[in-house]
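Write out the bound-state structure for adenosine-5'-triphosphate.
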Amino acid sequence: MAAYLLRRAGQSLLTLVLATIVVFAGVRALPGDPALALAGEERDAATLAAIRAKYGLDDSVIEQYWAYVTNTFQGDLGRSIRTGIPVRDMIVGALPVTLELSLLALVIASILGLLTGMLAAVRRGGPSEWLANGIALLGLSIPHFWLGLMAILWLSVGLGLFPASGHVPLLSDPVANLHHMVMPAVILGTGLAAVIMRQTRSSMLEALGEDYVRTARAKGLRERQVVGVHALRNSLIVVVTIVGLQLGNLISGAVVTEQIFGLPGFGKLTIDSVFQRDYPVIQAVVLITATAYIVINFAIDLLYSVIDPRIRVAGGAD
Amino acid sequence: MLSVRDLTVSFTGEEGVVCAVDRVSFDVRAGEVLSVVGESGCGKSVTAMALTRLLPPYARVTGSAVLDGVDLAAASPRTLRHVRGKDVAYVFQEPMSSLNPVFTLGRQVTEAVLAHEQVSRSTAEQRAVELLDLVGIPGARDRLRVYPHQLSGGMRQRVMIAMAVACNPRVLVADEPTTALDVTVQAGILDVLRDLRTRLGTAVVLITHDLGVVADVADRVVVMYAGRIVERGEVRELFRRPRHPYTKGLLGAVPNAEARERSGRLLEIPGLVPVLSEQPDACTFADRCPRASARCTEHEPPLENVAGHEVACWHPHTDDENATAGRPAERSSDA
Ligand SMILES: Nc1ncnc2c1ncn2[C@@H]1O[C@H](COP(=O)(O)OP(=O)(O)OP(=O)(O)O)[C@@H](O)[C@H]1O
Ligand code: SF4
Ligand SMILES: [Mg+2]
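---
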């Protein structure tokens, strides 16, 4: 197990290094002289030289890359070209909003998806299966932004149940925060819930036909234990894979959702920085997104080995 | 103690109806080993699982299985749950897939104890160790944390037995507990079963292809063919004087242990077990039977007592034929 973890950690680190290279090279490849951009109106030679010296633009590419990496890992992400605010502060402000939104969406989607999926598998052929399948199909085929707009129209504007937009920091007022977050999180989670439901249903159906489920029944276990423990645990292996693959969609979905509900999160920061050509911010945002993917993948792998002992042992053996 | 009457099972699938078990009746007495033999596909496992309704929902089961006055075929899910594992326990045919791959042995055996006994988890765990010990798994305590894939087939089968006997069942249904295991392991597992019977008085329903095993441990034998019981009796009597041509064929196909090992499975009667979609009024063995007559294809032979034990055949082997041994005499022709 330890060897496996170490190997996976090594792989993740390598991917992260590759990501920094890509981000670094990507920004260098953009047209235009950054010194010119930074100088603004005063374009005399002395100012440009001073800027080049200050930002190390005369150094070799290797040196520049090294400087970039060390700065980044020390938490220095530069300043926004537009506002002059340190990029780190912008990210520290935005990230918690997105993390909360995604986590909430993930939790809601998992609970909803697992429950309806199990129900659809157990009540096979009944109306609940039909209903669950219908909801899943709708959840998959309706785009977020439309669903989000409809929710705002009906629940916020029409019924006044939830605020249509805006955000309250979690720590300053948790209740108001949740009140603002629930609707976006549900909207963001619908697609994932549908995917989880369908996957749970099909792997559950498969698991229910397995010999070990018959063994569990033959022991005299309650149906609840047979389905909810023996069959579910095995189905989860596949469900976790699918969820892992879908988390990328969750991140991109968060970008859209934040836009609709006016949440000051990471997605909004990304879109704003792209529209404003705010290169230091773009650079940081891309790097952090890449890191998030890497960390998520690592976490999914860990989760696997917790759920499926065969992976744990196979990984530890070599 | 357990009394099965007219148990009938049919499956409705995509390829139509399969009648897997046809009006099977038998009794299991306390403390005896009743063996059910027959070729692959003749309905042994389905019969066993139908007893406590472990078959999938699309299986249609009729008839009765009465255990101490309670008809399991008509029992509520709640009653069935209390019967399963406590009164009637199973060792299934497939040791490789019958244990849950994601749980430790300790958890799976403990669970079998906790299903019917109100004891603490640590007591149940202690009992699990004793059970693993009982079925001859070395280092039982350390094995609690082991997963099924870390064990050999023989060891898994022992774990299955340990779970099955966890609550001292009255009837233990062992479905081919020794098939696919090598000879020494086989002997070990049979010893465990025999030991249980003597110590706990557990009745064992032993399903097997292996007539050598039957001769070794069984008290009575039920011979099945194409979902029906074709012959039934006390083991020595039935082996000495087999009356049904099918039984005769089975026995003829086991000349000695050496040949049995060579061929793996022992049946060398030409032809295959038919898969039936209905219950024909005829002998289902007719197209493979060297003694078949017109009557055999027109009427179903009833299971009747013929000098010593019961047989379902219009032209059963006589004692004289059995004395001269070997092949059946000429075909009877009383059509
Ligand atoms: N779940 C099922 N669905 C449909 N048909 C089934 C099912 N289980 C068994 N059958 C059919 O019922 C018949 C009897 O099967 P069964 O498993 O009882 O045979 P068996 O005597 O145990 O054979 P073996 O010695 O190979 O274990 C076979 O024709 C089989 O195809
Ligand atoms: S009834 Fe006829 S066909 Fe059937 S086993 Fe007896 S002799 Fe053969
Ligand atoms: Mg079988």
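---
The radius of gyration of chain B is 21 Å.
The interface with chain A takes residues 49, 52, 54, 56, 77, 81-86, 89-90, 92, 94, 97-104, 111-112, 115-116, 147, 149-150, 160, 163, 166-167 of chain B (CB under 8 Å).
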